[in-house]
Structure formats: C-alpha cells, structure tokens
Amino acid sequence: MNLILFGPPGSGKGTQAKRLVDERGMVQLSTGDMLRAAIASGSEIGLRTKDIIARGDLVPDEIVIALIEERLPEAEAAGGAIFDGFPRTVAQAEALDAMLARRGAKIDTVVRLLVDDEALLRRITGRFEEQGRPDDNPESFKTRLGAYNAQTAPLLPYYEAQGKIRSVDGMGSPDEVSKAIRESLETVAA
Prior knowledge:
By secondary structure, the protein is of the alpha/beta class. It has helices spanning 13-24, 31-41, 44-55, 61-78, 90-102, 117-131, 138-152, 155-160, 174-189; strands at 3-6, 27-30, 81-84, 109-114, 165-169. The chain is globular, with a radius of gyration of 16 Å.
C-alpha cells in the first residue's frame, strides 16, 4: 500500500508516519528528513537546498522527485511507502503518479490530518524551543504555512476527484490520531 500523509507543517505527519512504519513495516519517505540528511552530508543537493529551507521556501520539484525516486525500490521491497511532506504541488502529484505508474504502482489513499493553524503555531514554537530545528522557528513556520495554504492545499481537489481522501482529526493525542488512521486504512484495505 502506498499512502500520503497530508497536512500542513507541524500537523504530526512525521510522528504518524513513524508509527505506521513500526506497525506495518512500510518505508517512510519524508522529504523533510531526506533534505535534512542531504544538508548534513554536505552533498551537492544539500548545499543547494540549505538556504532554501532556512528561508521556508519550497525546494524545487526536480530535487525532491530525484530523492523520492532513489528510495522507491526500498519502499517496494517493504510492501509500500508512506509519503510524508510529498507531494506538495499538483505538478509533484502528477509526477509521483507517473513515476509510480511506470513501476506498476499507485497511491492507494491520502490520509488528511485536519488541524487548527493557531494550535500548529503553538506546537511548532514548542518544538523549536525544545529541538532548535532551524526550519521550525515561528517566522519560518508562518512562511511554510502560507506556502502550504497557497500551493499544497490545492492538492485536495486532485485527490478528492480520485476518491482517495480519508480525513482524520489531527488535533487529538498521538495515540488517538494513530487509532483514527488505522481505522481509515482498514476501510481502504477492505
């Protein structure tokens, strides 16, 4: 099963993806994690994206798609992928659909985490204070949230037209959200 965890920055996609990895053995394809690893490695991609991420801007499609494509064989061997933070635009969704179709696969479902923007700002501020991640500072978050609302939220009609959206209340505890996701995935598998 290939699924997308969909929601704004700070909505808990990473936390829930890790839980799904533990429960189902799937591979989490987190573009944020992959880009942070590229930056830490000092690779060419990392150097190109470091300033982009620090500003809160979206990384160009060709970089993100190349990172995803590198990891697809691993996901296929594990029985599926959890896309976390990708796709972010309709162009990326179309590229992902084409990439998967070439491999005889598809996106099976999109789990949308419904959250409140003000609560997200409090969540991000706390995470920034605890972990010090530069892309989690409140000002950068506001830029990322604006980019999400302008560029990523338009993906909803794209996946709604395919009948793939499953909405889950993302404001509960991590355990409550995990339970709701499990229940939603059971309807897909049935």
